[in-house]
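can u pls check wat happens w/ pantoate
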Amino acid sequence: MKVITKLLDLQRTIQQEKTSGASIGFVPTMGYLHEGHLTLVEEAGKNNDTVVMSIFVNPLQFGPNEDFDRYPRDVQRDTELAKDVGVDILFIPEVEEMYKGTQSVTLSVTERVEVLCGRKREGHFDGVVTVLTKLFHLIQPTRAYFGLKDAQQIAVVEGLVSDYFFPVEIVRVPTVREEDGLAKSSRNVYLSVEERREAPTLYQSLAEAKISIEDGERNPDAIISMISENIQENTSGKIDYVEVYTYPELAELTSLHGEIIIALAVQFQQARLIDNIIISVEPEEDLKCLER
Ligand code: PAF
């Protein structure tokens, strides 16, 4: 595995890959790798000649009161994990390398952003699309791999790629979960023992909502109430949101039908956890739904 920290080295290496006709699978990360990231690499390895991973804690996507400074970092451990799982090129730039001086052009997301985490984290997705635009230009991936745990991020990135004709296929990879259903996340390390015990309720409440839809419930408010009550009764976390939209457009619904996302965010003492399910809801006469 080649470890690269400088843009110029990366550009030279990518040029060689492109000249040799290699397809490139790209896994962008902020490090502190867990099984979710490693699954993205495995998926990328199945369909591409070369797998590139980036590790960059992107300051632009953190708000002033968010956890940029204390976001968990362990580059040495990440480098070993990346090598073991089959990354070919690991790009770990410094902030100064990615953001040289003042930016003279800024990117701003206008759709799919006024809901879910976008509404709560002002400017977050502007930071995400900015860094991904830079990384896509540098790495020129054939395919880029994103976990569905951050489903809004995927919706926004698909918008970016479609609007600006990036020649990259965005691959949606299902959320990797602990045995008890908790979605894997770098932030899970911040949960206290008691909170960790409570946290599987998040996914359980989504799974119960899915069963209720399969049984015929089509009222989004009823689904939201059901999930909220479950979380309030069984966790000490504070609900940030429980919302239901079409996916990937993230438009509001008065009755559940078609491809929908049920998403939630819960603030625990030191960790804000998010989770979601995306299901395909058949018309009311055929009461089945398929989880993606
Ligand atoms: O999902 C993440 O870890 C980040 O938002 C990403 C895509 C690496 C951009 O910084």
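The pocket of pantoate is lined by residues 28-30, 58, 61, 128, 131-132, 150, 153 (CB under 6 Å).
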